[in-house]
């Protein structure tokens, strides 16, 4: 019997490129995908909700999660920890659902080691100038943190080659459309492989 596991999709990209915006729009349109809510030690922003945007943890709680191996991956990004709960991802994939992670690059590379069959998508800004405009106009970070995030952006962009797909977030709708096409084509690809595998098994019997 062929296992019908879900597909793991990972979206990364520099801070402020629009990952959250694109992901929320994608989820408005696709109710089959499951979003993995991350853990973080960063302070809750105005308008964010515990258990919707993140699970907010103290540094001690987060370090305990690391020690207990409850995280699939984790990273320190501009003074805070961020991590993906292992149990949710493994159980949801095993139940046959696709899981969507929105995480930074160091974490995505860890996921790739454990899930090389995952689909890795890098969201790219139309320009570095526009990236700066977006992160500044969001108005959630101090000037100092904006600068740190922009510095990190350059390192993240250098890792873009490790991804399967690069999508430019010029307009939200067109970025969402491109990601939907990627999801559909990955399903077609896996269906085709599963059929070939099934036929191979039948021929052998
Ligand atoms: N295609 C777009 N055109 C113009 N503005 C956009 C676009 N996509 C997102 N934005 C705006 O850019 C800002 C940053 O977007 P968002 O918070 O989604 O980025 P992010 O990549 O999730 O950032 P972070 O990694 O810091 O959480 C927001 O104010 C959002 O409204
Ligand atoms: N490695 C991980 N990175 C994560 C995770 N959840 C979110 N993130 C990324 O962190 C930065 C900053 O996020 P912000 O909400 O403070 O703006 C951004 O790139 C997120 O995608 C995670 O579980 N692991």
TrEMBL record:
Localisation: Cytoplasm
Annotated ATP binding sites: 13-20
CDD domains: GMPK (cd00071)
PANTHER family linked to this entry: GUANYLATE KINASE (PTHR23117:SF13), GUANYLATE KINASE-RELATED (PTHR23117)
Organism per entry: Virgibacillus kekensis
SUPFAM superfamilies, sorted: P-loop containing nucleoside triphosphate hydrolases (SSF52540)
Keywords: ATP-binding, Cytoplasm, Kinase, Nucleotide-binding, Transferase
Family classification: Belongs to the guanylate kinase family.
Alphabetized PROSITE patterns for the sequence: GUANYLATE_KINASE_1 (PS00856), GUANYLATE_KINASE_2 (PS50052)
Record protein name field: Guanylate kinase
Function: Essential for recycling GMP and indirectly, cGMP.
A Pfam short name: Guanylate_kin
Entry's EC annotation: 2.7.4.8
Lineage: Bacteria, Bacillati, Bacillota, Bacilli, Bacillales
Gene behind the chain: gmk
């Amino acid at each position: 019997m062929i296992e019908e596991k879900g597909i793991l999709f990972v979206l990364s990209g520099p801070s402020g490129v629009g990952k959250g915006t694109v992901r929320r729009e994608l989820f408005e349109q696709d109710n089959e995908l499951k979003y993995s809510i991350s853990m973080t030690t960063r302070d809750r922003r105005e308008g964010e909700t515990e258990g919707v945007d993140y699970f907010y943890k103290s540094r001690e709680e987060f370090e305990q999660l690391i020690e207990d191996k409850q995280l699939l991956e984790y990273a320190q990004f501009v003074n805070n920890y961020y991590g993906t709960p292992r149990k949710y991802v493994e159980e949801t994939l095993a139940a046959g659902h696709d899981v969507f992670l929105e995480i930074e690059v160091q974490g995505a590379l860890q996921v790739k080691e454990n899930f090389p069959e995952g689909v890795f998508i890098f969201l790219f800004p139309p320009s570095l100038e526009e990236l700066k405009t977006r992160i500044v106009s969001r108005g959630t970070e101090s000037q100092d943190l904006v600068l740190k995030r922009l510095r990190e952006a350059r390192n993240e962009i250098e890792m873009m080659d490790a991804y399967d797909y690069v999508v430019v977030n010029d307009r939200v709708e067109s970025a969402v459309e491109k990601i939907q096409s990627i999801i559909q084509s990955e399903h077609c690809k896996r269906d085709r492989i599963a059929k070939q595998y099934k036929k191979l098994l039948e021929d052998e019997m």
